């Protein structure tokens, strides 16, 4: 049972995290599976500006995952729960051929302050947090089978242990700075297209302003064909950073960083639809959604 | 977003409904899969005495289930949503090798009125709703491959389209008649054992009082080896009826039926632990939990 403190509302979100669809049991450590399952669900709360409170876990596992694997998975989930201030409030378990974690998360927010993706207007400024493409770079390292090499380890963190900027989301919502907001789960090109469609506007982004993840030269020269930083920033998935718009008159109130989270103005909303990418040479191109579409669809 | 009406609390429950674990895609019609997924989640709300309000659906499907199969499945779910007064409030979708439906349900209740399974005391009277074993009988018909024969069709309904007694659960909770309550999902022997353990008491049930599903003579003589009515009543799963205890001084206030739902006093709670089954000849035997443990564990 949970009541609402006087003058508070609840927001709720539910997310599936499935073997071979969202993660690979052979490639991803169990701690990572547990942590990410909860972190990505929490990201939806951050993107509304809510304070995470409770979660429910529906866990389906093959028999051979019920021992050590499960212990480690739950340890990873407990790490995320501590980090985001959440308590387990229920759920169920079942045996299954594949691993499936379904997370339902509940957050609290002041009435009327939840930010949705449909409030952007032409003229609003467009912002993102963190560095774009960093999580995809980590995934690419995993998929190429070199994730156990010590020198690439530091590039795995954004993919293994994403940190949705919960406090920043809450601040943007409580100050009513953001006219629209969502989390970046499937890549900027895909998620910004969704925000544009929900709000009935288009977007213009500046290529030289995008905060891109560093792709170390040694990786690019490794012969393993890594995507470049711009491609990762535009289409890389799972960053779980915030994408939000701010009315022009309030845009100066947004700092370059807050609580250690980098904030970057990357463009503006325009009349029309779709995404226009402007390069410093004055040219512009259209960007189609090409974001992350899960392992199942890559086959 | 959802707030609480003044002086109301929320209860929440989350349940997985998985192919080959909880249903068989080849044997169960898609309407049934959709209906049951929501009905069984709603049963948890009924068992607390809450009023169902919202649900979230996480749907994972193989590609070949996205057309007609999905349409029919959602039609079945919509039927359950109408029947129980629930609105879809969110969720997500993913491709998967197997069908997986995860349902999160939210219900409202007056503060402090939710009934749990841990409040039974020695001396309390034990009640059930409906007929026990009726759903299992339907499942047995499905498993024997004769579910398409017209003459057995009427025995499928309790298995295909269970109706948790939501209004009755709410009435019991609002009048504070029930000292403990839960839904019968895995069979009386298993669920009553859980209630006993949670409350720290034992139970004595009367074999001749159990409201048993009728097993038609033609089925028993079919050579397909159907379990008998007592076995079905004690161990059959998925009835989604209510199991509840009432303090002795209030037990007379419980009618034999209410809103068309049959209510039967089947025994009493006693000091100690475990379940004792008393037969009219004055003998008694211990009953071990042998309830429904899903398809995966039958292999």
Gross CATH architecture of the largest domain in chain A = Alpha-Beta Complex
Largest interface: A-B, 41 and 41 residues
Number of helices of chain A: 9
- Compute the number of strand runs of chain A: 12
For the CA atoms, what is the radius of gyration of chain A?
A: 19 Å
Could you say which structural class the secondary elements and strand pairing of chain A correspond to? alpha+beta
Describe the main β-sheet of chain A briefly. 8 strands, mixed
What number of domains of chain A?
2
Q: Averaged pLDDT of chain A, please?
A: 93
**How far do the termini of chain A sit from each other?**
43 Å
Indicate the percent of residues in helices of chain A. 25-40%
Q: Uncertain runs of chain A with pLDDT below 50, 5 residues or more?
A: 295-299
Specify the overall morphology of chain A.
Answer: globular
**What's the CATH topology name of the largest domain in chain A?**
Phosphoribosyl-aminoimidazole Synthetase, Chain A, domain 2
CATH H-level homologous superfamily name of the largest domain in chain A:
PurM-like C-terminal domain
Order of helices and strands of chain A: EHEHEEEHHHEHEHHEEEEEH
Strand content of chain A: 25-35%
- CATH C-level class of the largest domain in chain A: Alpha Beta
Oligomer: homodimer
């Amino acid at each position: 049972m949970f009541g609402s403190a006087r003058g508070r509302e609840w927001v709720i979100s539910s997310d599936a995290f499935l073997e071979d669809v969202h993660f690979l049991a052979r490639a991803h450590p169990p701690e990572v599976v547990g942590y990410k399952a909860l972190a990505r669900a929490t990201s939806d709360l951050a993107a509304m500006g809510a304070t995470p409170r409770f979660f429910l876990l529906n866990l389906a596992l093959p028999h051979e995952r019920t021992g050590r694997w499960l212990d480690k998975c739950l340890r990873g989930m407990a790490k995320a729960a501590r980090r985001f201030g959440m308590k387990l409030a229920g759920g169920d378990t079942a045996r299954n051929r594949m691993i499936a974690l379904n997370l339902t998360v509940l957050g609290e927010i002041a009435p009327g302050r939840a930010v949705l993706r449909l409030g952007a207007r032409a003229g609003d400024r467009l912002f993102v947090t963190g560095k774009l493409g960093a999580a995809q770079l980590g995934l690419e390292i995993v998929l190429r089978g070199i994730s156990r090499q010590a020198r690439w380890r530091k590039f795995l963190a954004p993919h293994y242990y994403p940190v949705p900027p919960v406090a920043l989301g809450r601040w943007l919502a409580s100050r009513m700075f953001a006219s629209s907001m969502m989390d970046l789960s499937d890549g900027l090109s895909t998620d910004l297209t969704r925000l544009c469609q929900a709000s009935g506007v288009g977007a213009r982004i500046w290529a030289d302003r995008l905060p891109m993840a560093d792709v170390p030269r040694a990786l690019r020269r490794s012969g393993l064909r890594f995507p470049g930083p711009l491609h990762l920033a535009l289409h890389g998935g799972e960053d779980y950073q915030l994408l939000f718009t701010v009315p022009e008159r309030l845009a100066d109130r947004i700092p370059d960083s807050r609580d250690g989270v980098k904030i970057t103005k990357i463009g503006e909303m325009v009349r029309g639809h779709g995404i226009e990418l402007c390069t410093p040479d004055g040219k512009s191109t259209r960007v189609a959604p090409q974001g992350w579409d899960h392992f199942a669809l890559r086959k």
